[in-house]
Amino acid sequence: MAVETGTETVKRGLAQMLKGGVIMDVVTPEHAKIAEEAGACAVMALERVPADIRADGGVARMADPEIIVRIMEAVSIPVMAKCRIGHFVEAQVLESLGVDYLDESEVLTPADEAHHINKQPFKIPFVCGCRDLGEALRRIGEGAAMIRTKGEAGTGDIVEAVRHMRAVWDGIRRLKSLPEDELMAEAKALSAPLEPLNETRELGRLPVVNFAAGGIATPADAALMMQLGADGVFVGSGIFKSDDPAPRAHAIVKAVTNYNDPAVLAEVSRGLGEPMKGLAAKALSQEELLATRGW
Amino acid sequence: MTTVGVLALQGDFVEHQAALRRLGADVRQVRTPDGLRDLDGLIIPGGESTTFCRLMEDFNLYEPLRAVLKTGLPVWGTCAGLIVMAQRAADFEYPTLDALDITVRRNAFGRQVDSFEADVSIPALSAGSSRPFPAVFIRAPTVEEAGDGVEVLARLPADAGPAGGSPVALRQGPLMATTFHPELADDDRFHRYFLDTVQQQGRRSSPK
Fold first, then answer.
1. What strands, in cross-sheet order, belong to the sheet with B151-155?
2. How many C-beta atoms surround the C-beta of residue A117 within 10 A?
């Protein structure tokens, strides 16, 4: 009797279970417990949140496996971890630890400027960032089982997340309007593989789950991304860099479930204290941008 | 027309909705106690069971859902849905809906790397065909114990690892549960089976 693990269906399937949920960045087992109790559908185990990575400078790498393992032991929800773009050995290490999802992330310093990881041979699924449809399809072509729009991590400024989510949907709407005989030229223009492009056109959406990330700091930010067509949200620095993380985390979870209900959004937004102070993405220099890492 | 509610707090409720609509049912996403009125059936989808419980508490859904589960309305839970319908969930910090007479263990196969696909034989679906069902198990729970009133519709094949032979599809009167995700398969037979049950039952959740 064949029991098959690591198939495309089970890799993409876990992302489908995360939909309508909030994935929270955590750096300690205590944070992870707070996130789980607030209703997070998964946590991202890190050594530092993006705002601190940004502030500290230097080279950002995969977290110490010790931290990741302690977080895995602390919670029963799925645990994700980040590896550097192109660093397939960090990915192998994280797979052997048994993390549930790998984020090949621009928040860490890229290890390869030409190539992302070939994600097909891995048994655990990957999520990758994108700024537009072409980038999403390239990552799917490499085997990503989930996509997230990049936004600009560690800023608390939603503007880039909005730009990237709109760009993905613009690309999909255009694709749907094209006659079949123009699809190869569109694939060329997007530098995108044809097969996921055709699949996207047929479905009217990406063939994998697409979350929003990078700059979400409030329940309204999270609901905005949901109304713009995200399947769920990642909140990085926005929770544990705010004044009072637990109620904010919980409020964002409730906002994502009820993203179309302004009365609920108003209710959950009340009295949360100060959000993370944040950085205007516009004020960042070209070298400080994380979203431009990877292609 | 048959109206089936899909609990839409979190998880893959859209996939259930799509399958039900393909089969001609009217679907309503349920997020509030009011959403439970006038339903012919209800699905509790896959997702994260801790998140479900947190949100059921936040939106005052525990008691209304428990009440609905006692009315004889057909209700089907998949994976996380099965966990919250169980009377007993080992190592789970939240109360459940206390309906199915089973003991369930979460993430019993291990982590995501152990998620799997397997062909499962479900005689109740067959209707003239013995084609196995392509079952998708994602960080799936196992059913460790089932009471006398629970009918086992399908088991994992005996040679499928340490949990081989354990129940993966169950029925207790109008309540159904699967540890796998028929909504992720290219196969609507389980949804049709559920809708057949809904039609035979011919019951409606009463208005409050």
1. B26-30, B3-7, B41-44, B75-78, B175-178, B167-172, B151-155
2. 27
Tell me the C-alpha distance between A217 and B57, whole Å: 24
Name the pLDDT band for B130 (thresholds 50, 70, 90): confident
Which residues of chain A make contact with B157, given a CB cutoff of 8 A?
Answer: 1
Residue A109: C-alpha distances to residues A66, A100, A241 (Å): 20, 22, 21
**Phi, psi for residue A137 in degrees, rounded to 5:** -70, -35
Domain ranges of chain B: 3-201
Q: Which residues contact A201 (CB under 8 A, 6 or more apart)?
A: A172, A175, A176, A178, A183
Angle (CA) A140-A143-A144 rounded to 5° is 60
User: Each residue of B132-141: pLDDT tens digit?
Assistant: 999 999 999 9
Q: How confident is the model at residue B201 (pLDDT cuts 50, 70, 90)?
A: confident
pLDDT digits (tens, 9 = 90+) for B148-164: 999 999 999 988 878 88
| Residue B203: predicted pLDDT | 72
- ipTM greater than 0.90: yes
Residues of chain A with Cβ-Cβ distance to B10 below 8 Å are 19-21, 39, 41, 256-257
Report pLDDT digits (tens) over B20-30.
Answer: 999 999 999 99
Q: What is the 3-state secondary structure (H, E, C) of B10-78?
A: CCCHHHHHHHHHHCCCEEEEECCHHHHCCCCEEEECCCCHHHHHHHHHHCCCHHHHHHHHHCCCCEEEE
The predicted model gives A138-151 an average pLDDT of 98
Identify the pLDDT of residue B132: 93
DSSP state of B164: T
Query: What does the alpha-carbon distance between residue A274 and residue A285 come to, in Å, rounded to a whole number?
Result: 26
Q: What fold, for B3-201? A: Rossmann fold (3.40.50)
- pLDDT value for A1: 52
Spell out which chain B residues touch chain A, with contact meaning CB-CB distance below 8 angstroms.
Answer: 8-15, 31, 46-48, 50-51, 54-55, 58-59, 79-80, 91, 106-107, 110-119, 136-139, 157-161, 181, 184
- Residue A176 appears among annotated catalytic residues: no
Dump pLDDT digits (tens) for B46-87.
Answer: 999 999 999 999 999 999 999 999 999 999 999 999 999 999
CA distance A131 to chain B (A): 25
